[in-house]
């Protein structure tokens, strides 16, 4: 599990000394576009919080998506007082590791954000886990900011289930966002700044490669990083 690899900022240096695990081949799983979507709403920036396992990979994917202006790793679903890595890792805070996306609806729609999420960022049929990571903090969830986002997200999940896009029913939850709390600085931009870290090489770099293969028109080579604001 990732928690065994990372015990805090000091563990990053130790992780760099580990043997690099060969990356799995990218296996993009593009899913159909949603039949219902949101209008651009005058072009004002929009946001949504996505949970899909370890936030490193979800953030890393969306930092490469055109139209996403900011992707911040953090915690959602629990109280502010337990919104820290050590507490959330216990699996009993109600938080999920999450990524808050801010995006330009003139460049990318809410529905297309969800399409990319379900296609390359996670396996939405897994319950309270993703890959090697297990626990409620790794659940799949879309935290929406209003009723319209909730309507589109639930309709899209129903659409994918009805089409049997996945071999099992989608387990992704859709809930109103109770609050989002940014994760510690050492978690931000982790994929971009630690591309040789074994967990990233094996679990998350293939997701970025899948994004480039499945959605070449949405892919940007230079990621939008939290640290630099670039």
């Amino acid at each position: 599990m990732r928690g065994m690899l990372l015990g805090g900022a000091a563990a990053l240096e130790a992780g760099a000394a580990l043997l690099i695990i060969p990356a799995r081949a990218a296996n993009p799983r593009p899913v159909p576009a949603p039949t219902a979507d949101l209008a651009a709403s005058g072009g004002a920036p929009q946001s949504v919080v996505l949970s899909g396992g370890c936030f490193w990979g979800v953030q890393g994917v969306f930092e490469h998506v055109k139209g996403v202006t900011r992707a911040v790793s953090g915690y959602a679903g629990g109280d502010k007082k337990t919104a820290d890595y050590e507490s959330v890792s216990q699996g009993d805070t109600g938080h999920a590791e999450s990524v808050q996306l801010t995006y330009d609806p003139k460049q990318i729609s809410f529905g297309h954000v969800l399409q990319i999420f379900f296609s390359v960022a996670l396996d939405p049929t897994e319950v309270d886990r993703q890959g090697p990571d297990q626990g409620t903090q790794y659940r799949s969830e879309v935290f929406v900011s209003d009723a319209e986002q909730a309507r589109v997200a639930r309709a899209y999940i129903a659409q994918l289930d009805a089409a049997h896009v996945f071999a099992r029913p989608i387990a992704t939850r859709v809930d109103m966002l109770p609050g989002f709390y940014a994760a510690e600085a050492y978690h931000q931009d982790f994929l971009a700044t630690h591309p040789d870290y074994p967990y990233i090489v094996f679990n998350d770099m293939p997701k970025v490669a899948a994004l480039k293969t499945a959605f070449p028109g949405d892919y940007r080579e230079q990621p939008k990083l939290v640290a630099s604001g670039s």
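The longest helix spans residues 198-214. The CA atoms of residues 62 and 71 lie 7 Å apart.
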